[in-house]
Amino acid sequence: MPVTMSIQPSMDESPKVSCVVLNWNNYEDTSNCIKSLIEQDYDNFDIIVVDNGSVDGSGTKLKQQFDSINVVFNATNLGFAGGMNRGIEIALENDTEYVWILNNDIVVKPKSLCRLVDRMTSNVGIGVLSPKILDFDNNLWFSKGVVNWWIGRVTHSEPDESEEGLIDNDYIPLAAALIDADVIEEAGIIPENYFLYFEDVEFSQEVKNLNRDVYTDLATTVLHKGSASGGGGDWSYIFLLYFQELFSIQKEI
């Protein structure tokens, strides 16, 4: 039986948010992500699922299950950035004010979106905002993104004990990032020259170049299964593989 999203209208409508989820041959995780989004305690959002060239029929199955979301199909796998950008472009065409891009293995809590939007609207300098991200065992996966430009290393570090509320980052992973649509219009869409990994570093730097903040909201948490979209990997190898890309990003700053 199809699942329908029911949003209660309000007298004072909240800013419009488009949630963009990327699916690639993974019905189960994507379905769980969508179900958690449908339960959001927020009154003005839509859901765009981009099926990124799946060959297992998962995109069609999602379209049949969730009749109130927009499922679009890419003929081939365009990579993380290329797939997400398809959804982002559709969101911008529909005059959204914020775009919430999510890995398909993210599960959000009912008040997550409401809290993130409230943070964004109360702090107009924020360009991109991430919640704190835990894995399914409630271990910390992301709270603060740090880039060491000298050795080309990108890490997630724990915030200092004195840090709470909103904290600044060198970058944030685009796993559950809420982005101001105006920032996308100015900074451009997600860089597509990496296919997978490090597009988030370059995009964060483009946002910072606009004098907009790249923050984490430590008071809002979501859950991340991890490795469902990219299949995992040896990060020490990835750091070496992309050192030249990191160096080129820094040269442009």
Can you offer a commentary on this structure?
There is one protein chain. The protein has 253 residues and is of the alpha/beta class. The protein has a single domain (17-225, 232-252), classed as Spore Coat Polysaccharide Biosynthesis Protein SpsA, Chain A, CATH 3.90.550.60. The chain contains eight helices and twelve strands. The strands form two sheets. Strands 1, 2, 3, 4, 5, 6, 7, 10, 11 and 12 form a ten-stranded mixed β-sheet that branches. The chain has a two-stranded antiparallel sheet with strand order 8-9. It starts with 16 loop residues before the first strand and ends with a helix.
Q: How much helix is in the residues?
A: 25-40%
**CA-based shape:** globular
Q: N-to-C SSE series?
A: EHEHEHEEHEEEEEEHHEHH
Number of strands: 12
The tally of domains stands at 1
Number of contiguous helices: 8
Structural class, from secondary structure content?
A: alpha/beta
